[in-house]
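Journal club side-thread
Mid-discussion, someone asked how the predicted structure for our own chain would compare to the paper's figures. Pasting it here so we can look after the session.
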Amino acid sequence: MKKLTLTLAAAILASTLATGCAPLLIGGAMVGGVSVATDRRTSATQLEDETIEIKAGSRIREQLGDKVHINVNSYNRVALITGEARTDADRAEVERIVAGVENVTKVLNESAVTMHSALSGRSNDVVIQGKVKASFIDARDLLSNAFYVVVERGEVFLMGRVTEREAHRASEIARQVGGVKKVVRAFEIISEDELARLTPKKS
């Protein structure tokens, strides 16, 4: 059993480094790298977001192949597109494909028209992502699991259902992390009253 656990952990780590995406553990505590118990989305929405990412990635690969290097991350049915396309036409086609995926309500196309990023750059993005997440954990006034962190070419994209106070605080923390070139807020802003309704009551 111990060997199986270690093998699974190694596979998840390898997947994370290869894609830059957070791990998915079905039947455990994590979905999309966010604790199910503290995620501000319903469990159904979390699974929809995972499905959106899988379908969008598959369709982009099928229709555009290696013409683009694109990552799609979905939070609360809002699909964030990052990565590189070599032409404006390819970038527009990527957006069309993602917008056509079932349950997507909004598309944020932050991809760039440029040459594909090098493996070293992608590895650096994974390191930055880890530092940002660690900084959120260290911040005692933030619930780190409320934030979905995406890093592309040193630019940090922050998603989540958060209050304006939380959004401002998280953005300031992310800007102070070494290697971060830019912080882009892609939050769904909620009120403090709504946050109180979403927060599990302590027994």
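Post-session note: The CA atoms of residues 84 and 117 lie 7 Å apart.
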